[in-house]
Write a structure and sequence with these properties.
CATH topology: Rossmann fold
Distance between the termini: 12 Å
CATH superfamily: P-loop containing nucleotide triphosphate hydrolases
Strand content: 15-25%
CATH architecture: 3-Layer(aba) Sandwich
Number of helices: 9
Oligomer: single chain
Number of domains: 1
Number of strands: 8
Strand order of the largest sheet: 2-6-1-7-8
Largest sheet: 5 strands, parallel
Structural class: alpha/beta
Bound molecules: 2'-deoxycytidine-5'-monophosphate
Radius of gyration: 17 Å
CATH class: Alpha Beta
Length: about 230
């Protein structure tokens, strides 16, 4: 029987982390966790309930009211995000949430709340988790850490195509501005900013397709699993 490992996948917004993490988890029969969805669900709750991001008491109270869980969706072959029992998978991908989520994810209390749950999910290993701080903060002991990068123009185009599926009026300028804004906040925030772990392997997918990217990551994963 092969040993299960923890695979941490980090990188900037829209560089294909979730696509890779999801495919890798399916191949290895591991659990896939999209931690960005958790920050998005929290941002959605804050926005629905008009929680001021400058009010620590309101934030603490709001967090105590939030229950997050993932549930497998057989139609999309991926887990949907549930906020207090409601499937919010579609709402959390909308621009209204995307434009606020980085500010919410920069709040220390929010990060502590989300990270504790993420660490609990990895207790039994056999997990592929994607985010910004997985290899540095959530699982610094992960057996495999992958830092995904891609050319910014490619990332904007990929994100535009994704968003156009539900919002045909979306412009390339709006997408580019949102990505730049999030990258800036995610990488400059005081609390666990996005950075490449010293022992992470870099995967630049600008010039390779999804299958080639998966092959590279699978090779790394199988080497780690064999040696664990
Ligand atoms: O991966 P994503 O775009 O869905 O992430 C949404 C936001 O949440 C993004 O602005 C960065 C933040 N995030 C984070 O700070 N830490 C994580 N582990 C995952 C996401």
């Amino acid at each position: 029987m092969s040993n299960k490992i923890i695979i941490a996948i980090d990188g900037f917004s829209s560089c294909g982390k979730s696509t890779l993490a999801k495919a890798l988890a399916a191949k290895l029969e591991y659990v896939f966790i999209d931690t960005g969805a958790m920050y998005r669900a929290i941002a959605l709750y804050f926005s629905r309930n008009n929680i001021s991001l400058l009010d620590p008491t309101a934030i603490a109270n709001a967090l105590s009211q939030i229950q997050l869980h993932f549930e497998y969706n057989p139609h999309t072959l991926k887990s949907d995000m549930y906020l207090n029992g409601e499937n919010v998978e579609l709402q959390i991908r909308e621009m209204q949430v995307s434009s606020k989520v980085s500010e919410v994810a920069a709040i220390a209390a929010v990060r502590n709340f989300a990270v504790a749950q993420q660490q609990a999910m990895g207790q039994h290993k056999g997990i592929v988790m994607d985010g910004r701080d997985i290899g540095t903060v959530v699982f610094p002991q992960a057996e495999l850490k992958i830092f995904v990068t891609a050319d910014p123009a490619i990332r904007v185009n990929r994100r535009l195509l994704e968003l156009q599926a539900t919002d045909p009026a979306i412009t390339i300028e709006a997408v580019a501005e949102n990505l730049q804004h999030r990258d800036h906040i995610d990488s400059t925030r005081a609390h666990s900013p996005l950075r490449q772990a010293a022992d992470a392997l870099v995967l630049d997918n600008t010039h390779i397709n999804k299958e080639e990217q998966l092959e590279m990551a699978l090779k790394w994963a199988r080497e780690r699993i064999a040696h664990d």
